[in-house]
Amino acid sequence: MLGPQHNRNAFESGAEPLDRYLRIQAGQDARKNIAAPFVLVLSDGAVAGYYTLSSTAVNVGEWPAETVRKLPRYPLIPATLLGRLAVDRRQQGRGYGRYLLADALHRSLRSEIASYAVIVDAKDESACRFYERESFLPFPDQPMKLFRPMADIEELFR
Ligand SMILES: CC(C)(COP(=O)(O)OP(=O)(O)OC[C@H]1O[C@@H](n2cnc3c(N)ncnc32)[C@H](O)[C@@H]1OP(=O)(O)O)[C@@H](O)C(=O)NCCC(=O)NCCS
Questions:
Q1: Fewer CB in a 10 Å sphere around the end CB: N or C, the chain?
Q2: Which ligand 1 atom sits nearest the alpha carbon of residue 93?
Q3: Is ligand 1 within 6 A of the CB of residue 144?
Q4: Any residues with CB less than 8 A from the CB of 158 and at least 6 apart, and which?
């Protein structure tokens, strides 16, 4: 979990809004129980990457028809939001992104709060491809919003 001991000023992922979020907003969101930021810290103390988790809900109409058929008729389906995920530019391509994603999925699975799926909002095509390679599926008509069912995540860690 992100704490005051973590030096986040040098963090640079190549996506300025994600860097600014870590520097300015993440601590406040954590204190106010809006998002839980988790950081990957290297042995020299530098933040190599981070992600955030929050609770969310997705309108039943947004899910694929074959998913909805299997669900009870509630207007909102509970889910876990992987709000942000970023790796420092100097550390990209070393497996940290995949490691952080796996850590986020495992943490989501361990929660005692029911959640149908983990949701991500990809910031661009490249991020979308990263998540698709990790078995995330796009929502119909919202190609940048993707999900991975918790039942599938459970299988992954079985
Ligand atoms: C996307 C990001 C988190 C990936 O982190 P990373 O540490 O470089 O990724 P990894 O080294 O763990 O790579 C995991 C796999 O994804 C692939 N991958 C990494 N970045 C990718 C991208 N932008 N597009 C497609 N595939 C990508 C890698 O090739 C690797 O696959 P391989 O093992 O088969 O070669 C990182 O590039 C980043 O922070 N980018 C800027 C912010 C961003 O786009 N965040 C996404 C959330 S909106």
A1: C
A2: 11
A3: no
A4: none
Q: Are 26 and 50 in contact (CB under 8 A)?
A: yes
Cβ–ligand 1 contact at 130 (below 6 Å): yes
What is the CATH number assigned to the segment(s) 51-156?
3.40.630.30
Q: With H, G, I as helix, E, B as strand and everything else as coil, classify residue 26.
A: helix
Distances (CA, A) of 5 to 67, 133, 142: 43, 34, 38
Direct distance between the N- and C-terminal alpha carbons of the chain, in angstroms, rounded to an integer: 25
User: How does pLDDT run across 60-92, given as a tens digit for each residue?
Assistant: 999 999 999 999 999 999 999 999 999 999 999
Q: What is the pTM of this model?
A: 0.94
**What digits encode the pLDDT tens for the residues 87-107?**
999 999 999 999 999 999 999
**CA 53 – CA 37 distance, rounded (Å):** 7
Tokens of 5: 């001991």
Q: Is 51 a catalytic residue?
A: no
Domain ranges of the chain: 51-156
CB 24 within 8 A of CB 84: no
What is the sign, positive or negative, of the torsion defined by CA atoms of 105, 37, 139, 126?
A: negative
The whole-angstrom separation of Cα 117 and Cα 108 is 9
